[in-house]
Amino acid sequence: MSLHINNISKSFKDLKAVKHISLEVKENELFGLIGPDGAGKTTLFRILASLLLPDEGSANVAGFDVIKDYKKLRKNIGYMPGKFSLYQDLTVEENLNFFATIFDTNIEENYDLIKDIYIQIEPFKKRKAGDLSGGMKQKLALSCALIHKPKVLFLDEPTTGVDPVSRKEFWDMLKKLQKKDITIFVSTPYMDEAALCDRIAFINQGEILQVDTPSAIVKNFAKEVINIRTNSIYKSLQVLGKYQYTHSNYPFGESLHYMDSRDDFDPNEIKKHLEDEGIEDVEVQLITPEIEDIFMELSRE
Ligand SMILES: Nc1ncnc2c1ncn2[C@@H]1O[C@H](COP(=O)(O)OP(=O)(O)OP(=O)(O)O)[C@@H](O)[C@H]1O
Question: Domain ABC transporter, which positions (predicted)?
């Protein structure tokens, strides 16, 4: 195992940010921690990177205890915090050299590992980090987190605030890195990124709700999800909010998603009910649930 987390909890005064979390991450796995703002992702990352002490529990990363072996641990992990962590006044090249020096290495020694990523920002190597675009900053931060060839890479919300094209490129880079013998533990609030991970853990209000492969999570989800398109989403939400068989309903893109409280039901009944209430152009369709539907359902319990 590359990461072994056993019953970790952390409170800030009365607020329990992380509650009894236990998780295992295998070697060379691309593991995603998926949850909304305030779920406890950063707190867990900081504990695993030995930057914050847990109130209880233990964790071992790449064979090192996060408390007892923190010095060795830090040499063997890469950590890219959610907030931009580079020196804005240093150039791209200076930032990378700085991180290499801290870890007693140099850019040449591990260039192979960062080549594919660094090559994209190398033309701007004399530019100050503060003047880079969001996507470029992210590539520089990743290069800096990798420069000492860590065994485990922690990426805390690396794609938050990054445009969709750069987000896609970033995940492609992670897939390539994974093949170079690195375990990747990445967090994201974007549910669509869950499908790109080997396994995921849903986290909400400091608790892990479910851990599995994205496909198994979808396959094992017991409820049926109906996608509803109408010319009045808002009114439909209100009508279904009062409907006796509604289990849940919420806006989803330009449609709304509905789950019924019965085990067996005909989606056309929902269409008829909406039409009886004066809503026009109703289309209902049974769909494969999205990761977000499952997260919403698990968060209700
Ligand atoms: N140093 C701190 N002092 C007090 N409360 C904190 C501290 N750090 C985090 N919290 C609180 O702990 C909870 C979990 O925060 P955390 O940053 O771990 O969540 P997150 O999932 O990373 O979300 P975000 O994307 O908003 O950072 C939040 O309610 C946050 O306000």
Answer: 3-230
ipTM for the assembly: 0.95
Here the CATH number for the domain that contains residue 66 is 3.40.50.300
- Closest C-alpha residue for ligand 1 atom 6: 12
Nearest Cα to Cα of residue 45 among 171, 191, 158, 166: 158
43, 55, 154, 203, best to mutate for ligand 1 pocket (most atoms within 8 Å of CB):
43
Residue 192 CB partners (closer than 8 Å, separation 6+): 291, 292
> Residues 82-114: pLDDT tens digits?
776 788 999 999 999 999 998 888 888 888 888
Q: Residue 246: give the domain boundaries.
A: 225-300
Q: How far is the CA of 23 from the centre of ligand 1 (A)?
A: 20
| CA 161 / ligand 1 centre spacing (Å) | 18
Q: Is 247 helix (H, G, I), strand (E, B) or coil?
A: strand
